Amino acid sequence: MDEQVRPILEKYQYKKEFLISILQDVQAVHYYLPKEVLEQLSQALQIPISKIYSVATFFKAFSLEPRGRHLINVCVGTACHVRGAVRVMEGIEREIGIGPGETDSDLKFSLEAANCLGCCALGPVMVVDGEYHGKLSTAKAVEVLRGYE
Amino acid sequence: MVTLTINGREHQAEEGTTILELARSRGIPIPALCNHEAVKPYGACRLCMVEIAKDGRSRLVTSCLYQVEEGLEVQTHSEKVINVRRGIVELLLSRCPNVRVVRDLATELHIKEPLFPIENEDEDCILCGLCARVCTEVVGVSAISLVNKGTGKEAASPFHDVANDCIGCLSCAFVCPTGAIKAEDREGYREIPKWGVRLKLKQCETCGYLFAPEKQLQYISKHECIPEDSLNRCQDCRSKAGG
Prior knowledge:
The complex is a heterodimer of chains A (149) and B (243). Chain A is built from seven helices and four strands.
């Protein structure tokens, strides 16, 4: 079994009902849900693989494709849009060389467009690994991203 | 026992009976596609909507899930019900324009054209989930499931790859109301392309007929505690031999 998965299963005492929490923890370690790990979970939790696949594909927060170490969510909702989110997004795309929904080849960044992050007063806004960066300009967004390894 | 009325006529039913079960047992037609006696009611297709009234208030419920209540007044073909049902069939027809049962329902409700542009002429799955539910509830295998969500929802094998747990019993194809699951037995194998499955068939040792996938027989043997060599003959030869 995957060395990093065992402690996660132990934390949740191998209980089926914690599947979603377990998947979240697995994704926090691997940045996505590898097929092999899902198969191991199926064995360990005694949940059919079809059910796990069903859950893993249901939530947008889960990815079955490899993702970068850092997840960037750029808001392109109405409030951010009118404040220039499109230009911010374009600046980010130029900086890291990928578009929304993509992951760069050295698995550093994954980029996602969000429809609203619920903090319109901060717009244009992006979230990197859960950290909010508000009142963005293209230059500021690029500067923030250059700070990530 | 509770007493209620359906379309103005009084009926009695055991507690716990659903409106759909009662109506059907009394010959009152209510359309439904996701309902099957072999599995628990699910409420996916919404076709079985009926109008219920109690204490002067009326609302629409899925009759496959709603259980009978004392004094309930049920309408299965009121204007409200027909409107909702027509709306659902219009959506189904837009998704699956060439599926027989959907077309028949549309004709019944005088729907001539699909309401929305058709994305895929050959789409035949209405996402009722019966295949996955039978696989879990009746067969006990859970080889397939409904995956993704919203417009991307579909019945699929894990990872859209080979459904490794499938035993090839074809229960899914049997319950599918639209015939969306196709299977073929050829050259000694059973193929179910939708689940990526190809399973070797067992030959009856008496008549030579290829009667069931070996994997299904192994499954039956294991789960019903029947010795595997007692499953070496097809059903016909077994009954001829008197058991």
